[in-house]
Amino acid sequence: MKFIKSFLILLVLSSTLQAQESLEYQKPVKEILDLVDVPLAPSIRIDQKGEHMIFLYRDGYKTITELSEKEMRLAGLRINPKTNISSRTNYYNNIKLKKIENEPVQVTGLPANPRISNISWSPDQTKAAFTNTNVDGVELWVLDIKSNKASKITDASLNANIGSPFRWFKDNASLLVKFLPKEKKSLINVDEAVPAGPTISISEGTKAQNRTYQDLLKNPNDEYNFEQLATSEIYKVNLDGSKKSWSKVGMILNYSFSPDGNYIMITEIKKPFSYLVPYYRFPQETAIYKSSGEIFKTINSVPMDEVRPKGFMATRIGKRSINWRSDKPSTLVWVEALDKGDPSIEVEYRDEVFQQDAPFESKPASILKTINRFSSIQWSNEKEIAFAYDYWWNTRNTKTYIFNPNKPSETPKIIHDRNYQDRYNDPGNFVRSRNEFGRSVINIIKGDAYLTGDGYSKEGQFPFIDQLNLKSNKTKRVYQSSYTDKVENIYFATNIDKGEFLVGIESPNEYPNFYIRNINSKDKLKQITNFKNPFSAIQDVHKEVIKYKREDGLELSGTLYLPIGYDKAKKEKMPMILWAYPEEFKDKKSASQSTSNPNEFTYPFWGSMIYWVTRGYVVLDDASFPIVGENDEEPNDSFRKQLVANAKAAIDAVDDLGYIDRNRVAVGGHSYGAFMTANLLSHSNLFAAGIARSGAYNRTLTPFGFQSEERSYWEAPDVYNTMSPFMHADKMKTPLLLIHGKADNNSGTYPLQSERYFNALKGLGATARLIMLPKESHGYRAKESILHLLWEQDQWLEKYVKNKKMPVSEGTN
Question: What is the mean pLDDT of the segment spanning 443-471?
Fold first, then answer.
């Protein structure tokens, strides 16, 4: 009898500790639901001349049924093995065409129930190719812009598992297309396969300090399946649907035409495969082919890239970033490390850039050396002028070089040398146009280049266009947006000679629309789209950017929303939601800059907290949470202290305005913002509750770095332990809602992180709730998941924030 009684007690305790709530997908209250289920404005593709626009329509969300389709996770890829395309592809379901001066017209000939992706203009922009995914696989279609008609040109046998499945030939009449091999072998059902032996990994004394990648290969069966799904056979396909085999079968990583169309560079994945790194760090071989399909020359072989030196600026040795010069017919360009890829080695120059003209027999010519790690090159319509960029993460420095690629003996000139986090002094991006090869290049007119910038400043945001004299390096502002109640985003020049630019204009209650602005004629603005505001219920919500100071004097900011119908004269004390994401800086000047603009359109999305202005909450969105480490100090050395200081400053600022009850404030964030939330609840008494989505909570599970921390656990154990909420779960006294996608593929945020953290909180008696969303990745996609997410958040906020039970001592005078 005593044994039975003890057994029953253990059974009750066990069921209490393991209690689960059986719950079907829920929907939020009507005020929120009405803002979620709205039609989306189409995505836009505009030709370089600004004459034709492709309108692409899609549903706002996938369904849980779509997310439940068969998925294989291999070497960093997520593949639908039946259709042979990424299982996470976003599809469009309709296309319309619009001439700038006309209304959109429905494209004819589209497939039934289209699932459209991979849209690509032809070189002359008279056509656009796209893929359609049906139940059997991926088809290739072509849209003729003049006739407004779409036509299918292949059956559903494309291989779209890695990169784009097609490329246009320069003649605009044919495409190079990746197909599944004729002899496609059956895949192994890994779940049912009987193992032939154990899986063995080997370490032979060489350090391989890799991030915690997800979806890696795990065993020989995974290797086999990856090879089958990655293997393609390339065909040349004409617009009438006729095709012929073009090259051998291989695991094609990427491929590209030379600007003149005479050569194709193809990079193939080779064996052996790795269980430590994703597919793009497997062995590779790059070869040049003639446009007829004959192999011309192998130009690079890369061994397995598992082992690199320590640090974010580490890279591999040998040729990398191999590309074509956009301004010449067929010239290869690549970069090689001069420091063996090791950022700890002190050298005058980190990288060297080389070029080699067809037929690729001459000795490669050095054209540039960069002080920091090479980033990219932009070519121009003047073949003797090019621009290169480098960067160095540790100092946040970036440099822009102007140089003559045809005369490497000439010393390059550094025209920008700046902190890339300094947004107030960002010079902008060069204006580009299409050259004779149909490639995008920087447009230089009579020795001048033009740049468009976001125009952030202490006074607000005023986007601009600057004219840069390349000899004197002096700029002249030729246009600056003067809106103080709207935002004007400058996209690209449709006709630089006439001064015409494509711009977007929006306001808090005015949906973003496109215009052609002529900067040479004052106030000459032509509207070319007319999208309506689908969120009219919140169009009059009060919105402002507030600025305030942290206790150390650092200036912070956030976008403040007041509840719908809030009376600013009465100043009723309302609950508040603070939503944020920490960012690391190496100087206080950059950390204090604000890029929030109160004039941006108020656009609630699945992860937004703006919905709660309909529920009586003040929302402080995108609150500044800088973590600063100047000189030799690393930002994370004082992470927790700065985190709490940021939070206190934000609450104090809104409280000083008289809008909130500071005893009813929630904090939340996604990913690193979730990590922030758990830390704030553990190490402060500022909040009534928290919401943490898709976070990581135990940094010892990401021992070779995380976010902007490049030191390993063994180099900085105190930092890892101090920053890990899991290590301080016993300090948690505030209700915490944990949400995580069961199929999270983000490096470091394994679903296990939330599961283990919740178990610790539960075991220590904290108030917590764990929601694991089936099939969802790091961001959430299914409508059912998102509606349930909003319901969970609303229930949590209503219970623990708005209707928080006050202790007697707090509720008395």
Answer: 96
Cα separation, 786 vs 773, in Å, equals 9
Backbone angles phi, psi at 30, to 5 degrees: -60, -40
Sheet with 524-527: strands ordered across: 487-495, 500-507, 510-518, 524-527
If you search the block for the tokens 């941006």, which residue do you land on? Answer: 600
- Long-range CB pairs of 415-420 (<8 Å, 24+ gap) are 415/468, 415/473, 419/395, 419/586, 419/587, 419/590, 420/391, 420/396
Q: What tens digit of pLDDT does each residue of 380-402 get?
A: 999 999 999 999 999 999 999 99
d(CA 569, CA 38): 33
Distance in angstroms (rounded) separating the CA atoms of residues 224 and 217: 10
Mean pLDDT (the chain) is 93
Write 715-724 long-range contacts (CB < 8 A, 24+): 716/636, 719/634, 719/636, 719/637, 719/639, 722/639, 722/640, 723/636, 723/639, 723/640, 723/679, 723/699, 724/697, 724/698, 724/699, 724/700
Nearest to residue 130, comparing CAs of 165, 161, 157, 96? 165
C-alpha span between 440 and 492 (Å, rounded): 11
Gap between the Cα atoms of 727 and 41, Å rounded: 46
Q: Mean pLDDT over residues 277-286, rounded?
A: 97
Q: What ranges in 216-374 are assigned the alpha helix state H?
A: 220-230
Sheet holding 295-302, edge to edge: 166-168, 174-179, 231-238, 243-257, 263-269, 284-290, 295-302
Residues in the chain, total:
813
Predicted pLDDT at 6: 41
pTM of the model: 0.92
Residue 693's DSSP bridge partners are 670, 739
Output the CA torsion sign for 487, 492, 495, 498.
Answer: positive
Which residues carry out catalysis? 671, 744, 778
**DSSP per-residue string spanning 286-311:** EEEEETTS-EEEEEEEE-------SS
The 3-state DSSP composition of the chain as helix, strand, coil percent (nearest 5) reads: 20, 35, 45
Opening angle at CA 184, ends 182 and 185, nearest 5: 150
Is the Cβ–Cβ distance between 620 and 559 less than 8 Å? yes
| Nearest C-alpha neighbor of 636 from the set 725, 749, 723 | 723
What would the DSSP string read from start to end of 593-651?
-----TTS-----TT-SGGGGGGT-EEEEEE--EEE--TT--GGGGHHHHHHHHHHHHH
Q: Specify the DSSP class assigned to residue 207.
A: -
Burial class (CB in 10 A: 0-12, 13-18, 19+), 651: buried
Query: CA-CA distance, 355 to 743, in Å (whole number)?
Result: 43
DSSP for 465-521, please give it.
EEEEETTTTEEEEEEE---SSSEEEEEEEEETTTTEEEEEEEETTEEEEEEEEETTS
Cβ(329)–Cβ(262) under 8 Å?
A: yes
Phi, psi of 805 (to 5 degrees): -80, 115
